Amino acid sequence: MRVSASGGIVLVTGEREVEEAIRLVLATAPGERPTRPDFGCAIHDMVFAPVNEETAGRIAYEVRTSLDRWEPRIEVSDVVVTVAPDEGAALFIDIRYEIRGTNNPRNLVFPFYVIPSHDDPSTESEDS
């Protein structure tokens, strides 16, 4: 649902509807919805994980697994996780997919923020 230019409520359709559904799956942590406790994506378990290759790989796996399960309208071709260039606490999840029955490749970038550990020497200031 969206607010129209005139202030009314409108429903999204087509490719935009699929994009919103992907964002909903990724933004929901499993257990967050009492009536559907399995719904969502387990990337939220990695909020306190270090920003490294292992975490990026696990996030890519969780994204692919959750979208395969919860969004049958798409075929995920690739999930690439990169560290934001200016921020060490942000990861960009680039999901490359195709809506089934079309030959229209699409992508969606979903930002994911981690909370760096105070024990991690790479996050401490030089004055310490």
Helix content range of the residues, please?
A: 25-40%
What would the principal axes of the Cα set say about the shape? globular
By CATH reckoning, the class would read Alpha Beta
> Which H/E pattern describes the elements?
EEHHEEE
Structural class: alpha+beta
Largest sheet geometry = 3 strands, antiparallel
DSSP helix count? 2
Looking at the overall shape, the CATH architecture is: Roll
Number of strands: 5
**What would the average pLDDT be, to the nearest integer?**
86
- Could you tell me how far the N terminus lies from the C terminus, measured between alpha carbons in angstroms? 48 Å
Walk across the major sheet and give the strand order: 3-4-5
Low-confidence stretches are 120-128
| Radius of gyration of CA atoms, rounded to a whole number | 17 Å
What's the domain count? 1
Percentage of residues in strands: 25-35%
Which topology does CATH recognise? Nuclear Transport Factor 2, Chain: A
Pfam families: GPW_gp25
InterPro entries: IraD/Gp25-like (IPR007048)
Protein name: GPW/gp25 family protein
Organism: Actinomadura meridiana
What features would you describe in this structure?
By secondary structure, the protein is α+β, with helices and mostly antiparallel strands. The chain has helices at 14-27, 53-70; strands spanning 2-3, 9-10, 74-83, 90-99, 105-113. The strands form two sheets. Strands 3-4-5 form a three-stranded antiparallel sheet, covered by helices on one side. The radius of gyration is 17 Å and the shape is globular. Mean pLDDT is 86; it is low at 120-128.
